[in-house]
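dumping this here so i dont lose it
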């Protein structure tokens, strides 16, 4: 067994990784090991906890205290996001594990400096044959010696762009999930909303969970996941094919949700392909309650994980076959891939194409292979990864899909908090979120109601402005929104498509102020710049409790700058002088009572 270094220079970043060559048993080493010398001893660490609807919760501590971060749920961002910042004032280092399963980051201070390690957990072992190799997950690192975290982030995101490669660019999308969920969606509802969406600048309508199932069986679709040939003909009497065609006739491309890795408790797949089911050890956090027939079994028990093991080639073929068939049937242009199961430590079967100690690694590698096959066969389809919100969103899966869904919840403060942190590590064109979705049930923060939209005059406009930060969409009852609200949606989507979307893939994101946090915490007035080679946009996003931020634009030509409102268009334009050092303090020019997108235009003296 031999090792070779397969690290890649990516712009100003480095993807650390190594390759093992067989034969022999490999115990996965760290993918990356760095030493920060004693001059960093006063630095601080920043990391982010994650949970359903609790993505990107900031945490920090001194470097000198050390740190162990890990995820054992089997999804990369189910506990923490796989990223770390070392912040030493002018100097900063950003690190991200590009891997969608379990991972570990360790920071160990010592007399000779602080060791930062990242990679797979140490229980991962793999047996390689004589002609086999194994490329370990990559860990992307970028650092800056001046300019602090913002400067290191710009380098990291540039490197991430090189790592992620090609993107099928999405249009703004409508999705029915939150206002209609599965209970109230039907062909009629889909098509009626798609028609309104198309008239207001939304190019795709995505049919989420609810299309699929066995009406009359008494079984909920969640129990039937895996039997993707089933269509709920009660709600879609003409089947998926007619619903897709009618969506197109209404003016939108058709998109579809699928949870191809999951196997429901009553799925026929259990009897037709028992050989493909993942079996593993129940951990305290797997599976989630209700996800499988053994969900309540105690930790330590050997259980089916409620999952197809994509570590096996036959399971991969099955999933690709489902997708190929659904694309042919519906001509879908957007595939929303979900996973509501925690695979835990993964499959331990010995009759799959993996060993007993590398089942999760093989599953993740298999997932990437499936995504690559889907994208190669259907190059016009936008592939979105959504994993019960942002539960599996890392630079590994991002390299095999087009966009990642931010979070199931999206009230404005939460959405702003997520973008602020995620955009430190991900190119903004990969970040996809919705606008203050109308919740079907009750939720403390998701309180927007179409029928009462103007009780809070700026709420919809503010929420749209925040949702426009990356790739954008809405999950609203468009058919119930009054004309003035739809005008706002239409104006937002038009600005997004004409001015924001073209800038995203070439933009550097600059964040001003502290990260906003949920529940009224953190920075209350985030200001985000998108700085491109030839244009610059600025989003001023005051939240409840905001006081005047300190925002100094930099890198400007001598003369003045004009802030021209893009959305909402009736905000006030201002012209401000540029200081001799090429900066311009715009703090006092930003309105406190509403969120506004501005175009920043330099007027050279
Ligand atoms: Zn397996």
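and the seq i came up w/
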């Amino acid at each position: 067994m031999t090792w070779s270094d397969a690290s890649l220079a990516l712009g100003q970043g480095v993807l650390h990784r190594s390759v093992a060559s067989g034969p022999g048993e490999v115990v996965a080493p760290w993918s990356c090991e760095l030493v920060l010398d004693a001059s960093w001893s006063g630095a601080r660490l920043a990391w982010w906890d994650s949970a359903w609807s609790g993505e990107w919760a900031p945490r920090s501590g001194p470097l000198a205290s050390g740190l162990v971060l890990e995820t054992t749920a089997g999804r990369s961002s189910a506990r923490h996001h796989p990223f770390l910042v070392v912040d030493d004032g002018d100097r900063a280092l950003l690190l991200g594990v590009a891997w969608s399963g379990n991972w570990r980051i360790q920071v160990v201070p010592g007399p000779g400096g602080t060791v930062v390690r990242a990679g797979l957990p140490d229980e991962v072992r793999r047996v390689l044959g004589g002609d086999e190799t194994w490329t370990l997950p990559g860990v992307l690192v970028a650092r800056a010696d001046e300019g602090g975290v913002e400067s290191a982030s710009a380098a990291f995101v540039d490197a991430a762009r090189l790592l992620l490669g090609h993107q099928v660019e999405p249009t703004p999308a409508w999705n029915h999930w939150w206002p209609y969920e599965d209970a109230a969606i039907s062909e009629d509802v889909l098509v009626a909303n798609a028609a309104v969406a198309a008239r207001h600048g939304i190019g795709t309508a995505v049919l989420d969970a609810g299309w699929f199932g066995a009406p009359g069986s008494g079984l909920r679709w969640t129990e039937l996941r895996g039997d993707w040939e089933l269509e709920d003909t009660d709600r879609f009497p003409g089947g998926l094919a007619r619903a897709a065609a009618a969506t197109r006739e209404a003016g939108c491309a058709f998109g579809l949700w699928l949870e191809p890795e999951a196997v429901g408790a009553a799925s026929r797949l259990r009897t037709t392909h028992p050989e493909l089911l993942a079996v593993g050890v129940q951990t305290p956090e797997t599976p989630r309650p209700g996800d499988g027939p053994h969900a309540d079994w105690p930790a330590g028990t050997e259980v089916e994980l409620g999952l197809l093991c994509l570590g096996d080639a036959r399971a991969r073929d099955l999933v690709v076959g489902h997708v190929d068939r659904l694309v042919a049937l519906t001509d879908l242009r957007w595939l929303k891939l979900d996973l509501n199961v925690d695979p835990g430590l993964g499959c331990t079967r010995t009759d799959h194409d993996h060993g007993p100690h590398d089942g999760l690694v093989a599953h993740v590698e298999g997932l990437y292979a499936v995504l690559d096959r889907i994208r190669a066969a259907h190059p016009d389809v936008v592939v979105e990864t959504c994993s019960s919100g942002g539960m599996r969103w890392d630079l590994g899966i991002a390299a095999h899909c087009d966009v990642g869904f931010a979070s199931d919840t999206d009230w404005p403060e939460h959405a702003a908090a997520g973008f602020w942190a995620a955009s430190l590590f991900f190119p903004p064109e990969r970040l996809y979120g919705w606008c203050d979705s109308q919740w079907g049930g009750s939720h403390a923060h998701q309180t927007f109601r179409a029928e009462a939209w103007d009780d809070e005059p700026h709420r919809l406009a503010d929420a749209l402005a925040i949702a426009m930060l990356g790739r954008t969409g809405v999950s609203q009852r468009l058919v119930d929104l009054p004309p003035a609200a739809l005008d706002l949606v239409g104006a937002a989507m038009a600005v997004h498509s004409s001015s924001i979307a073209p800038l995203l893939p070439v933009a550097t994101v600059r964040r001003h102020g502290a990260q906003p946090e949920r529940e009224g915490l953190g920075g209350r007035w985030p200001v985000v710049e998108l700085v491109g080679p030839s244009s610059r946009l600025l989003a001023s996003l005051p939240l409840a409790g905001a006081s005047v931020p300190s925002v100094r634009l930099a890198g400007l030509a001598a003369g003045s700058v004009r802030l021209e409102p893009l959305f909402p268009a009736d905000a006030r334009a201002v012209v401000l002088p540029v200081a001799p050092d090429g900066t311009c303090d715009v703090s006092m020019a930003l309105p406190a009572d509403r969120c506004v997108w501005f175009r920043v235009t330099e007027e050279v003296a």
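The pocket of zinc ion is lined by residues 278, 309, 311-312, 347, 349, 352, 354, 359 (CB under 6 Å).
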